[in-house]
């Protein structure tokens, strides 16, 4: 009879009904996956005990390598190794120049404005590269939890615009991950901090990562995490510190831009990053750069010079802080804690400047790398329905105003920044020409007055109005922003009640058709992957069978088998050895294993008999009987 | 999910009396309760219709909250409930003294950059505007409570001017701060 199962207090009484959901921090430099187990949220390590997965992907003709091994190849194979891909998410070809860095990739001309990187494994968009990182994290989650995931909460910088959010969601779709929610990184950090510290009141989350900066002001009150204002820069982070240092090295060592190929510029950035990290502990650090085969440059960078290089960048973040405080209508002295999040807040200078600005000591006691993923996992667990009585609720805002283009290229704001989401606003339009049956709407995001200074999100065409005189029609366009911060638009002609069709042309996103074809390609690819893996598994199995057979034959082959019987087994064994090394499909190896098993079946039976006899020798039957009834 | 929500006015949604002065703390508490009930995160396992309803409900709750939170938009909403739409004002006839004041303010705003300490001048302007806004709000309250809707409307029109000026002061302050860094 089975024993009654009694659950520990706080544990789910029905473990098999638990739905596994993960939180994923898809970072510029590193990514993490976390989940809630036994009521505790934790990041998941890989088989080597590493929690951080470097957000690097290397493409070879046969393989996609994600993580540490890929990052290590960044200098050696710069064109096929993609790092910091998050900076390219939701960006157009013309934006790449504005990112202020020399990217080592070769971009291919494409029909859409989505840039594609030429690699030996084909052209890759940022969405596909991100999907490969997500796949690796998904696999880690499933292997650790031993079950399929019902979904994931994926974090994004709070300051990500609609195109960047949409790109992140597309990447998840390509990775076959069900997105429960896109969660703003500082909000995720606030959840982890709030639940851990039990603090209530107004907090500021200062989140400086590898490539993005966010500041969020939240009010924590009885499990409600209410974002009052958010601000930031989705193209500012520790990477920019590295670039500033690299430029300084180039000036000092008199290296000109045309001396730099992709590989050397990667090397330079790597040296810059190492110097930055060393200066966290040391007052000064030596740097050596091989200029060519004969010459080497020796230099040293001290903290004062580093501070001069990065102060302007830190200054930009403080400007965003000032703005967020003003938008939140909060005074500095109302803030109970300034929580430091993101790897770049390890910089002593950043801590010093943030402390000066907020006039308080920033909180640096939580792990700045893991806190976002941990918070995301808590939200994922709640959304998966594992915490039905939970009080937790996250109320977020839209980071940038949404508007439309009006006459003269001006922006008319429809939804202002820091409005709580979900939100919907309707705007009425009318026709300006007799017989007009269609209308074009250009949606932009940003704070600037001129449309061209803001981010173009999409162009909509409204069609199918009944022809009337100018001004007789009233077209009501509804802008809906959902809880993920994503925009959708619907339109209705009010005098006739006709629903106008909305045709969306995302300015920087992938169309549904493109995503479909990528999905198809990746599914075919996945089939190849599955077959390759299964072949490897069969080869391992074959090696195991051969080894077991050899050791058995050595032990008692001559005692139990006739020469003839032994020859049959050895022939099958040799065939398997050959198949193991030569086979191209897993089935071939499987068949050869089966042949060995068949040929040796009688031998195995004899061995079992002889071993049972020797084990049982000297024992009474009763002893075995009680054991078997247990 | 009840659809009563959609039949209620913004004050009713939060269980508040329809009035110029509101209990902001009570509204916040009620806002959180409603969010806990209707937020899409509560229906993450629900079907598509449920999540759409949740999104519509919270969109409405958020609009109501934003509208009532700011005194000016709350005042406009009060007039809207009385059938007076102030969202698309085309009537610009106003008392001359007020307009003169506004024009002077605009001029000093244009010249603020030439001042020795522009940021503190801007801070002074901001606090003056805040006072003015408060006075106008009191005027509005009197007119509204006496059911003098035309006078109430006039106060709102003035407050819209003040709000514009406030936004401009804020914008110039932000620009100056940008340049100083």
Key descriptive features of the protein:
heterodimer; A: 630 residues; alpha+beta; Substrate Binding Domain Of DNAk, Chain A, domain 1; 3 domains; eight-stranded antiparallel sheet; six-stranded mixed sheet; 27 strands; B: 181 residues; mainly alpha; Helix Hairpins; Monooxygenase; 7 helices
Q: State the distance separating the first and last CA atoms of chain A.
A: 9 Å
Termini Cα gap of chain B = 51 Å
Question: What strand line-up does the widest sheet of chain A have?
Answer: 21-20-23-24-27-26-25-22
The low-confidence parts of chain A are 1-16, 621-630
CATH superfamily of the largest domain in chain A: ATPase, nucleotide binding domain
Number of helices of chain A: 15
Characterization of the model:
The complex is a heterodimer of chains A (630) and B (181). By secondary structure, chain A is of the alpha+beta class. Chain A has 3 domains: 15-237 and 310-395, 2-Layer Sandwich (Nucleotidyltransferase, domain 5), CATH 3.30.420; 402-509, Substrate Binding Domain Of DNAk, Chain A, domain 1; 514-616, Substrate Binding Domain Of Dnak, Chain:A, Domain 2, CATH 1.20.1270. Chain A is 39% helix and 25% strand. Chain A contains 15 helices and 27 strands. An 8-stranded antiparallel β-sheet of chain A has the order 21-20-23-24-27-26-25-22, with no helix packed on it. In chain A, strands 1, 2, 3, 4, 11 and 12 form a 6-stranded mixed β-sheet that branches. In chain A, β1 (21-26) and β2 form a beta hairpin. The radius of gyration of chain A is 31 Å and the shape is globular. Chain B is mostly helical. Chain B folds into 2 domains: 4-69, Helix Hairpins, CATH 1.10.287.110; 96-180, HscB, C-terminal domain (Monooxygenase, Up-down Bundle). Chain B has 7 helices and no strands. Chain B has helices spanning 10-13, 24-38, 48-69, 71-81, 96-111, 118-145, 149-180. In chain B, α5 (96-111) runs parallel beside α7. The longest helix of chain B has 32 residues, at 149-180. Chain B is globular, with a radius of gyration of 20 Å. The N and C termini of chain B lie far apart (51 Å). The model of chain B has no long low-confidence stretch (mean pLDDT 87).
